[in-house]
Write a sequence for this structure.
């Protein structure tokens, strides 16, 4: 075999030496446009796992790399004039230049041909090779030449960042957050030897403009950042190496090979620098490709195998990188957090590290977080208690009410069954404020007979220690449907009732057209909500939840997709919120206990509500004395584009809680106590709806 | 977990007699179901017709479409065909439905593929009403055929949770199945359905000397529309008893209710060889 590798970075060189080692009679050529000692960037980071792979793949280079390592196990987070250190995260760093020198030496020793300062202008120059390896980065020739087969998607991240080096000696992965008049700036810094570190500065684009960095020279950028981070730099300097402010680009491609051409590393995929995995993924690609070539006689089968092995792994890192970059893009949202919660939130930003992982890596940090969380929840002195329950089993106080733990269960018709699960808060099934507001014939209505049953049920639930909220709603255009055991939103064929909605638009293609709500209807619905709230008080419910979500009557007013009114209840957000807020005010007149409101944070549809608007809605509800937002998603319209991934409602809860400043219940496929503890400790919600039925564990 | 076998309606050179013999052997073997695929612009048997033939020569196994491309069919006729296979098989029919992925099937049928998702939703909303209402028979004696929905998008999962009894996965490693099943359960819960969805999985196999190549060739051809991805599907074909038992174990751990293994080679011995592996 004859291999031609374009690009003499870590992945290209590593592939070359592994391929040559696997079969010394093969010809391996590496073509690099720069001289051997030119390198851009400072240090690279590897995890323990990657080191293991490097050791197994080529022990000689592993030993040399091992001699030049910086090794550390801490993450330091500088924020609001404090520093939180988390231990137990093993990292190793090495100078990129040193790494390339080691790989070049090893390539030469094995007989790989290295051609530096040769710019390949056309892939056809290497036509004689049996396999052409594109290891020439995101803007590389190979990727661009075969773009129609690789089908690239490139996403530009909104923040600006720049790579510096520094002679600051560090013994930890270091995050620094500093706000000045221009905005919030953050540093990602990590050592690569005893004297030098990589020092990346990132900031929102508007801060970058205000700071004048758009037109600044390299020297001016350095001067600005040195002054800004003077306390942490402790008189050390920043160094440039073609250090330009850029936006990060995430590259995804459907395929990484075509015919006898294959891509490696950044030429195939990129993942945001904040999870520090670029070189790791690139060198792992090299190992996988050489292994696949050894396993298969047929080149096509080998390249397929390589891609099948690597793509799912890379996709997982890209997903984590996206979560991580999104955290840094919105970090100012958490500016009011206690430093311990801030640190926990940062460490768990990519979802790859959870409460349990941190408990294993750094039990001391978790004790500190638990202790702070419990103290904050119960109002006891901070730091007084060393032995605290995990956040999920910490009580939540809302006004006079204490919910004994943070798990919420939404009940079906059998309220007692739901209450027996041990959740701190049980929310009843949808109970309608009127006969006409039912979803199905089975939907309970809060009439006299029902009140007596509910009073007894509440009493039984209180004996279990749980608290219970009554969920009140009016189905609107989603009413007059068949029972949900037979499917959802299947209109009743007979025995249905008249529907009302903000505007006369049917919910499904076959459901009845609702009548547009009149001012009289509005007055009536407000009256029945208020009466139901009074009844709830008589039933000794601990809390009341108003269902303004999922396309039911009130949700229909909030979303512009379903509200086409031209009166004072339609149009602007203020108008669309008029009816919901009138209900809240009327309920508040007779209900003093905690008031929860359930809203769909996104319509998941074009022209519908998005998270920005739901933050504004939550803020309005807060000013009308709502205590807590139960954040759900979608169902506003029949055809939408839902996303049911793990924890799908948590980002919305996070935004509403931390931007509108109101406690939240998070929902969305939350299935484990580890998820709940992570969400709570990171400040993404105050309560979590825990799904107790999962496939693979529970018999049907 | 139940294990079923596919009826080879889309591999090359299949005679009607072979299909009937295959169905008989499956019914006599350790399988709980017989599955068929649906294409229009392809050399395969029409799924309801093939299952009607299978119904006539089997007593025990469940008969399933995996999946029928619903928007290509008039809803009343679709409901009638399904009810007929259900009646012919004495209630052993499972109707798997989806929008399908191949543009050419829409093109040769003269049906616009735009808006097919919405039309599929309308069909799902209507089909049970048709069975229950009674004008279009044969009216099922009980609840009618089990309906399962396939597709990986959020829209597909929402339709599944609204109107069907569960989810039909389109194939892939157990890990991919587990991820899809978790999303299906999340959609189910999000829409307020009690319990959890039934989940079916599928895989491809070819056993015996020389059949691996034939199998890979068939999969490359069948999935040619996916471009380079066809190679990956072909590479994942299960071609040894060990690969099949590993695959089954993976699906069982992921909570699959019924796993149907489809042949990729056309000889009748495939059903016997598979029967031997799963015992």
């Amino acid at each position: 075999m004859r291999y031609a590798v374009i690009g003499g970075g870590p992945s290209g060189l590593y592939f070359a030496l592994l391929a040559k080692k696997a079969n010394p009679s093969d010809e391996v050529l590496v073509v690099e446009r720069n001289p051997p000692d030119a390198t851009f960037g400072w240090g690279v980071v590897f995890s323990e796992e990657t080191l293991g792979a490097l050791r197994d793949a080529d022990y000689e280079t592993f030993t040399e790399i091992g001699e030049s390592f910086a090794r550390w196990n801490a993450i330091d987070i500088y924020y609001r004039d404090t520093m939180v250190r988390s231990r137990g995260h093993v990292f190793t760093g090495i100078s990129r230049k040193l790494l390339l020198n080691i790989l070049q030496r090893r390539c030469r020793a094995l007989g790989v041909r290295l051609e530096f300062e040769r710019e390949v202008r056309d892939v056809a120059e290497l036509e004689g090779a049996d396999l052409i390896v594109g290891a020439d980065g995101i803007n590389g020739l190979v990727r661009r030449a075969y773009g129609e087969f690789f089908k690239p998607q490139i996403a530009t991240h909104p923040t600006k960042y720049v790579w510096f080096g520094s002679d600051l000696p560090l013994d930890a992965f270091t995050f620094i957050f500093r706000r000045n008049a221009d905005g919030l700036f953050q540093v990602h810094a990590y050592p690569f030897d005893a004297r030098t570190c990589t020092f990346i500065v990132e900031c929102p684009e508007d801060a970058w403009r205000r700071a004048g960095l758009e037109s600044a020279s390299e020297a001016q950028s350095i001067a600005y950042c040195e002054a800004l981070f003077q306390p942490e730099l402790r008189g050390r300097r920043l160094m440039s190496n073609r250090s330009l402010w850029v936006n990060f680009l995430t590259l995804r491609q459907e395929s990484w090979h075509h015919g006898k051409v294959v891509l490696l590393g950044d030429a195939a995929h990129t993942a945001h620098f904040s999870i520090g995995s670029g070189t790791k993924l690139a060198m792992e690609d090299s190992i996988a490709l050489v292994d696949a070539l050894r396993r298969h006689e047929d080149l096509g089968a080998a390249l397929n195998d390589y891609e099948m092995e690597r793509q799912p792994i890379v996709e997982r890192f890209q997903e984590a990188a996206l979560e991580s970059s999104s955290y840094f893009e919105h970090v100012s949202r958490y500016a009011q957090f206690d430093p311990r919660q801030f640190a926990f939130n940062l460490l768990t930003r990519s979802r790859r590290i959870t409460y349990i992982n941190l408990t294993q890596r750094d039990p001391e940090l978790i004790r500190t977080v638990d202790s702070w969380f419990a103290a904050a929840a119960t109002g006891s002195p901070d730091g007084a208690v060393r032995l605290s329950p995990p956040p999920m089993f910490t009580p939540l106080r809302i006004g006079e009410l204490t919910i004994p733990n943070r798990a919420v269960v939404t009940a079906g018709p059998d309220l007692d069954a739901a209450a027996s699960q041990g959740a701190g808060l049980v929310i009843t099934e949808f109970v309608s404020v009127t006969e006409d507001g039912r979803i199905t014939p089975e939907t309970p209505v809060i009439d006299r007979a029902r009140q007596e049953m509910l009073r007894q049920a509440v009493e039984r639930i209180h004996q279990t220690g749980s608290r219970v909220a009554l969920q009140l709603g009016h189905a609107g255009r989603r009413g007059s449907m068949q029972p949900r055991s037979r499917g959802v939103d299947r209109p009743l064929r007979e025995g249905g009732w008249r529907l009302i909605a903000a505007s006369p638009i049917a919910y499904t293609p076959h459901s009845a057209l609702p009548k547009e709500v009149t001012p009289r209807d509005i007055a009536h619905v407000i009256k029945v909500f208020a009466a139901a709230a009074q009844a709830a008080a008589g039933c000794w419910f601990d809390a009341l939840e108003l269902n303004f979500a999922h396309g039911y009557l009130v949700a229909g007013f909030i979303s512009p997709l379903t509200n086409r009114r031209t009166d004072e209840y339609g149009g602007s957000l203020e108008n669309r919120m008029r009816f919901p807020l009138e209900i809240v005010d009327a309920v508040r007149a007779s209900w003093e206990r905690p008031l929860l409101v359930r809203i769909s944070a996104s319509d998941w549809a074009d022209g519908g509500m998005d998270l920005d608007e739901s933050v504004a809605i939550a803020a309005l509800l807060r000013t009308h004395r709502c205590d807590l937002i139960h954040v759900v998603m979608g169902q506003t319209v029949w055809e939408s584009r839902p996303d049911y991934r793990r924890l799908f409602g948590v980002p919305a809860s996070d935004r509403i809680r931390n931007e509108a400043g109101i406690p939240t219940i998070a929902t969305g496929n939350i299935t484990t106590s580890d998820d709940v503890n992570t969400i709570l400790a990171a400040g993404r919600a105050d309560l979590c709806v825990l799904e107790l039925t999962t496939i693979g564990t529970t018999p049907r | 977990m139940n294990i079923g076998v596919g009826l080879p309606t889309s591999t090359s050179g299949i005679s009607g007699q072979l299909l009937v013999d295959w169905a008989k052997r499956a019914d006599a073997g350790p399988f709980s179901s017989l599955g068929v695929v649906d294409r229009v612009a392809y050399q395969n048997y029409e799924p309801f017709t093939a299952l009607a033939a299978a119904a006539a020569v089997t007593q025990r196994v469940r008969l399933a479409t995996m999946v029928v491309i619903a928007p290509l069919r008039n809803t009343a006729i679709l409901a009638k065909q399904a009810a007929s296979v259900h009646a012919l098989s004495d209630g052993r029919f499972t109707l798997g439905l989806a929008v399908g992925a191949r543009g050419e099937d829409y093109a040769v049928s003269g049906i616009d593929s735009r808006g097919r998702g919405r039309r599929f939703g309308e069909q799902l909303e209507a089909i049970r009403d048709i069975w229950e209402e009674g004008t279009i028979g044969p009216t099922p004696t009980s609840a009618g055929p089990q309906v399962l929905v396939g597709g990986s998008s959020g829209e597909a999962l929402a339709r599944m949770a609204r109107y069907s009894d569960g989810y039909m996965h389109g194939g892939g490693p157990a890990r991919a199945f587990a991820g899809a099943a978790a999303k299906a359960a999340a959609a189910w819960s999000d829409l307020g359905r009690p319990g959890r969805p039934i989940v079916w999985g599928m895989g491809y196999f070819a056993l015996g000397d020389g059949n691996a190549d034939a199998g890979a060739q068939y999969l490359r051809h069948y999935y040619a529309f996916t471009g380079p991805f066809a190679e990956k599907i072909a590479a994942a074909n299960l071609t040894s008893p060990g690969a099949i038992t590993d695959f089954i174990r993976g699906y069982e751990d992921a909570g699959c209710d019924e796993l149907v293994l489809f042949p990729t080679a056309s000889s009748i011995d495939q059903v016997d060889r598979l029967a031997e592996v799963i015992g």
Remarks:
- Chain A has a mean pLDDT of 93.
- The two ends of chain A are 55 Å apart (CA to CA).
- Residues 405-689 of chain A form a domain with the TIM Barrel fold (CATH 3.20.20.70).
- The CA atoms of residues 256 and 541 of chain A lie 59 Å apart.
